[in-house]
Design a protein that fits this description.
mainly alpha
Length: about 150
């Protein structure tokens, strides 16, 4: 059987997470800025626009394009990972794998940070055995469900 993903439902779960998350790992921001970031991420998820649109909105908030890029990458990863994990729970998925983004260099696999490399090497794990990505600022990893027949009871 073919497993399909309804991206609209996934976006809904990500949006719901983004609306309530406090963005506590972003340093030196007040409650007004937290609300602005919440709205920016939520609006971006609903819009379906590319990550560059979120980065542009966050640049308006932080007046620093490098910081905005880092926050956009980290918080979009977080919202979608949390939304995915919630969806997996509702689908009664018991195990997940940590997946990294390896950018190939020539014929060799790309570099991955040691934190994420170790998480990926753990293989299938119970769904609550690790926090969803991001594992660090700028992380682009994701959790993949392990379906029946792939070591999922």
């Amino acid at each position: 059987p073919l497993l399909t993903v309804d991206w609209n439902l996934l976006a809904t779960d990500a949006r719901d997470f983004a609306k309530q998350y406090l963005y506590s790992l972003i340093k030196n921001i007040d409650e007004t800025t937290v609300k602005a970031v919440q709205k920016a991420v939520e609006d971006w998820i609903v819009s379906g626009e590319p990550l560059s649109a979120l980065r542009a909105k966050l640049t308006e908030i932080f007046h620093d394009s490098a910081r905005a890029q880092l926050i956009a990458q980290t918080e979009s990863t977080r919202a979608y990972a949390e939304g995915s994990k919630e969806r997996y729970r509702r689908a009664d998925i018991k195990k997940v794998t940590w997946n990294t983004v390896r950018m190939p260099v020539g014929d060799s696999p790309g570099d991955v940070c040691p934190i994420c490399d170790e998480l990926e090497k753990r293989g299938p794990q119970p769904i609550d055995s690790f926090d969803p990505p991001p594992a660090h600022p700028g992380c682009r990893c994701w959790l993949r469900p392990v379906v029946i027949g792939e070591d999922n009871p």
